[in-house]
Amino acid sequence: MDVESYLKDKSEKVTKCIDGYFSRPDAHVPEILREAMKYSLLAGGKRLRPTLCIAAHVACGGIEDDIMLCASALEVIHTYSLIHDDLPAMDNDDLRRGIPTNHKVYGEAVAILAGDGLLSEAFLMMLETPGNIPVKNILAALKDVARAAGPAGMVGGQVQDILSEDKEPDRETLKYIHRHKTGALLASSVRIGGILAGADDKTLAALTSYGDGLGLAFQIVDDILDVRGDEQLLGKPVGSDQEKHKMTYPALYGLDASMRKAEDLMADSLKALAPMEQAGLDTSVLKGIAEYILRRTH
Amino acid sequence: MDVESYLKDKSEKVTKCIDGYFSRPDAHVPEILREAMKYSLLAGGKRLRPTLCIAAHVACGGIEDDIMLCASALEVIHTYSLIHDDLPAMDNDDLRRGIPTNHKVYGEAVAILAGDGLLSEAFLMMLETPGNIPVKNILAALKDVARAAGPAGMVGGQVQDILSEDKEPDRETLKYIHRHKTGALLASSVRIGGILAGADDKTLAALTSYGDGLGLAFQIVDDILDVRGDEQLLGKPVGSDQEKHKMTYPALYGLDASMRKAEDLMADSLKALAPMEQAGLDTSVLKGIAEYILRRTH
């Protein structure tokens, strides 16, 4: 399969879905808030979470259009987390995806509120999932995402990340941060694709293992790119993790051992898909995305 | 009815429910985050939103215990909004409910994340509504709350509030702020009590009118108390709205005219309940709470 064009196609569809959703006229939404939310939502990005969700859904026999809003909501949650991560009280970043961060353009207050608004709106988008998806599946997917985004997932990881700056790195803490800050929502994106398709427990277990490994591998590659990536391609300065004394895999294990870890994790992820293949499901897209994540340059 | 003891009883039950929920062991939640969330959740407060939800639910023939988690989740959303409102980039308040604000104790980064975590967790709590409430009612209630909390509701109101500081007050903007910043979630609290009880459209329309009027009246009384309230009872300095050049009812209309406005709104709220009474539903608790809100001293 041609994973690059698959990713490009899904990314465009997701962007169109998000743009359409957030352009709906609504006299109750202050114009500056709408603008601030759209600024970060439409600033680019690979739309990896929605794409993983769609790929898992279709692999389980689901129809892409049914879950487009739900999948796009994952990008909305991701975007809220980036806006808050970039705040002066957090990572204090001026640049994201090659353009000024939200608070640099709209000020801190509006940036905080744009993030807050996006999280509520993401749940609202998921609740608009059309009627051909059984209501109990929507409920289960919502639970999965809310947990992955909350204190036991992404928010917990971010707290630990902030607390660990300038601390002596240790393996357990580092693993906790990466598994929660980035891994939890990525894994949930894969899993809810299956949940919304009504996948059986065996398939959901396979998707969970695949998503867990892929999520951690993704963040390790992110750490590596922060050391030796191309600033132009990344849209942000390299070396910022080191400058902020962040706990990263390269800092703890070195670049080569980190890359080997990512490769091992991804190999396990691919192996985890075996039960789906035995059940006759096509996992080629999921495999292609995993390969892409490992080899990506930005 | 004795509204004071009703409010005290519900407030205690809600506090117990929240305390229990946030004390559940979960190795994925960093201890400091749990502590920061509980600090603000258990700092007191009248638990007005959950109490309104319970009162509406029971008035519509529902059972209190069925929706205890869902009702409590409204207080969790309210608490997240207070933590973020108090941040230096927003209202920059040092004191809330008589104790230091969240960021004063835990720092800005953890306070932002504690707020973020509470919002996700609130949705998770609502999703734990037990099985005797039909799933479609849970989804409808979630939609209502997500909209009331988001860009078209509370977050929109807060954005407009921040933008209007130091501006010449005007009636339309002031009404927008109050209806959205405070009114939307209060009205939703009432309405979802009915939605979760499977109330018919006539009853939901009555609850909506009651909640809308009550929500706006609540905020006008809040403005008035900020001018002439008792610092000890309020747990925060009086006069802070004026100091921050906030757009308020007393600033625009004066104290007496503001109080008359609140009284008129509340009278309309009570009248709106007539169709429920004609249908044989007991609205005495809802009326008692409205009276209390108008006469409260803190």
Give me the secondary-structure topology.
The structure is a homodimer of 298-residue chains.
Chain A lengths: L2 H21 L7 H11 L6 H12 L8 H19 L8 E2 L2 E2 L1 H5 L1 H19 L8 H15 L4 H10 L7 H26 L4 H28 L2 H4 L5 H4 L5 H5 L1 H18 L1 H5 L5 H12 L3
Antiparallel strand pairs in A: 1-2
Q: Structural class per helix/strand content of chain A? A: mainly alpha
CATH architecture of chain A: Orthogonal Bundle
**The first-level CATH class name of chain A:** Mainly Alpha
Range of helix content of chain A: over 70%
Order of helices and strands of chain A: HHHHEEHHHHHHHHHHHH
Number of β-strand runs of chain A: 2
Question: Largest interface by residue count?
Answer: A-B, 50 and 49 residues
Extract low-pLDDT stretches of chain A. Answer: none
Task: Round the mean pLDDT of chain A to the nearest integer and report it.
Answer: 94
Radius of gyration of chain A: 18 Å
Across the major sheet of chain A, the strand order is 1-2
